[in-house]
Amino acid sequence: MMQFKEIDGWRVIQESTIWDLPEEEKRISSVLKLSFDELTSPTLKQCFVYCSMFTKDFEIEKDDLIQLWMAQGLLHPSPNNSDLEMEDVGNQYFNILLENSFFQDVRMDYYYGTIIATCKIHDLVHDLAEDVSKSKTKGSNEIRHVPQNSTIDLQEIPKGIVHKVRSMFLKCEVLDNILPRFKGLRVLKLEESDVDVLPNSIGELKHLRYLDISATNVKKLPQSIGKLYNLQTLRMHELELEEFPKELQNLINLRHIHFEDWHADGRYPVGMGRLKNLRSLSFFIVGKERGRGIKELGGLKHLKGELSISDLKHVRDGEEAKEAKLAEKTNIRRLELEWSTDEDRSRVINNDRDVLEGLKPHSALESLEIRNFSGETFPPWMMCGDLFSSLKRLTVENAKNLTEWRTEEAAVFSTTEKRVVFSRLEELLLRNCDQLRSAPTDHFPYCTSLEHLSIYSCGNLEAIPITHGLPSFHKLEISNCDELSSLPSGLQHCTSLEHLSIRHCRNLEAIPITHGLPSLRQLKISFCAELSSLPNGLQHCTSLEHLSIINCWNLEAIPSLDSLTQLRELEICRCGGLKSLPPNAFAASLTQLKELEIGWFWEELDSFPVFQVIPQLETLSLWGWPKLSCLPKQVQCFTCLTSLTIHSFDGMEALPEWLRNLASLKILSIWKCKNLMYLPTLEAMKCLTKLQYIYIRNCPLLKERCNKDSGPEWPKISHIPNILCCLCDGPNILEICEPGWN
């Protein structure tokens, strides 16, 4: 409201008597009413009042709300903005109401972080919308809208006014003989209702513009649905339809159709190309049948938002692919292209490349996903700088024959030319590209917007050629890349990097962090068999909060960690080559450390490596090995410990008496200690007054001795509220001691 007021307008508000009201809730309600009165457009006020159709605290989908406003005829572009569509006007109205604090708890879209997906309305704001709605019909028996929480009996609505009902949000079954009475109905929302069958009489609602049957038990649409010529929105989320009637193609005014692809394979609607007014069509499955070919997309020039095209195996060649006219659909922001995986596709390598060439999109695309592509190389447009000037997210998945990401067009450029291909790219994901030898990073020095790079299961990948620092780069994930022997040299210059995760890279020998990464907060390295040392620059990563080194069996040493003063979680375990810890591994400077998992080092060690007491530690997991017969004694000094896990101490027969000192302990877990038989004494266990849970798993001797009532160790734990004692390697629990035994 602030941005639209002049000084005189603010003076009127300041001098209003609402500030003198005694009760706070009344004063707030009056302020809200004043904000409502200040809305300049009567139509905008109607849009706000319509929000009372939803129940309190309901999470409202923004696009759904706009489509409901549109169905009520509330969205009309002004003569000065005739190029605006109704949906654009709805977005403007939504934003005005948001700026005036009528909406709250806004949740952003997952793919487009700047676009609002849902919102809620505060209870007092909802009360205001209800009050205004009721005041408009006060003194008359007129019913125009039936909201979600209505107790109105539809059969009791007088015949003289039933034709004036415009909206019904119902949770009950819709009777076939009732619907035809509501001749003037614009909106019928049956989402999550008890409807099993959509009556054939639905076709008599000639003025219906919005129909939502999401999350119902409807299995089949009646043929009469094809008579809803004015229908603008059809929502069918979470619906398992057996088939789509061919009459669906008669809905020539349909602008938005919503349904998921998980139930549509083989039953996709035919003739979608006739729906020339479509704005929303989230996915299209290409079929062999007439009316399901890719050319159906050709005439849908108004499509916007996201579009997923699957089963591209049914596209004959590049010329047929061009009939989709994707380059002309300039309002599509997210595009997904997917071939199938249900056949041997080695014979269609060249065809896939031709088809992808014909599916060249427009230059304003923001997100592109390519899945199950069988070509060996991409077509030239995949390295076209002009085309990808707006691209922010790029995913290539299951391109199992792709050997290089380089085209004939790219080859003519010299290495001295700055060929910027992904100038605005923020996220790149490569997954299951088995033959790819080098990531498409030749032009990364100029990808100044790149934030996130993820590479998974690219078994032949040998290099990630990042040679310069990337100013926005904050997350790198690499997993299952067996041929990768080193990380890119430019990594140490990526000063904004916050998350680095390396998993299952068995030939990785080095991590080039010489001078430290000042912004790094999380470093995870696991299952890197050839890694013998951690980078010397690790001690200069002073922002590090989580360090995890697991299953690196050739690791022989770790550097000092005393400078990592922000460290909160530390895992160093299952590193069979590690013989010792640095003297000051857990120095007094690590005052933020709360969680520690450590152990399973060199198996010839007969005692746990010495480490310092960490007084503030809350969670500790200790991994043993066959030669160990006792726990490290310094553990008894961890008086703030709330959770202790003891794992694989095969040489240990009894838990130490000093466990009684862990006065804050709430959870004690004992795993795979095959020779363990004795818990601390009953007196010691009674000292653990905060202990609520004890888990004993795969400790056969101790399990036997902890049998309820009959086991000699049972009296020591019978007072503990929650006990689990079992022999299992997974979910097959042989015996569970339920809470409440004592």
Automatic annotation (TrEMBL):
Pfam families: LRR_14 (PF23598), WHD_DRP (PF23559). Residues 164-396, 477-693 form the Disease resistance R13L4/SHOC-2-like LRR domain. SUPFAM superfamilies: L domain-like. The keyword Transmembrane helix does not apply. GO terms for biological process: defense response. Gene3D superfamilies: Ribonuclease Inhibitor (3.80.10.10), Winged helix-like DNA-binding domain superfamily/Winged helix DNA-binding domain (1.10.10.10). InterPro entries: Leu-rich_rpt_Cys-con_subtyp, LRR_dom_sf, LRR_R13L4/SHOC2-like, WH-like_DNA-bd_sf, WHD_DRP. Residues 53-129 form the Disease resistance protein winged helix domain. Keywords: Plant defense, Repeat. This is NB-ARC domain-containing protein. The lineage of its organism: Eukaryota, Viridiplantae, Streptophyta, Embryophyta, Tracheophyta.
